[in-house]
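Hey, I'm writing a tutorial for new members on how sequence and structure tokens pair up, and I'd like a real worked example in the thread rather than a made-up one. If someone can provide the structure for the chain below, I'll link this post from the tutorial.
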Amino acid sequence: MSINLGNNEVKLDDSSMIVTETNGEGTITFVSKDFCNISGHSKEELLGQAHNIVRHDFMPSKIFKELWETVKSGKIWSGIIINTTKSGGYYWAKATVYPAKSSNGQEKFISIRVQPSKNDIDAVIDLYPTIK
């Protein structure tokens, strides 16, 4: 299958690791410098926003439903995602999301993202349009 996402792909380099933390409602409470650099958003623009501020239209909402169901049940979720940049570009990431608790016992989630392999990207480019 061939899709056209445009020519504005941003690739994470081997030393990039995007880290974010959200509260139990998915509101961003921490962002790493790499996340700001890749997304083009400042820390101030991201903190307090819903994490879906960077969601790309190509991502099936069903994948995020599965992600939230998994981490809310106390399990770790991992998968390939595509996000948007502030300038209208996009980037692929291999994401792992961990459920955690804050020091006061509140539910939170930590997401770590790195550059996925070309094979991983190719697989979801074919898969995601089939997910309803």
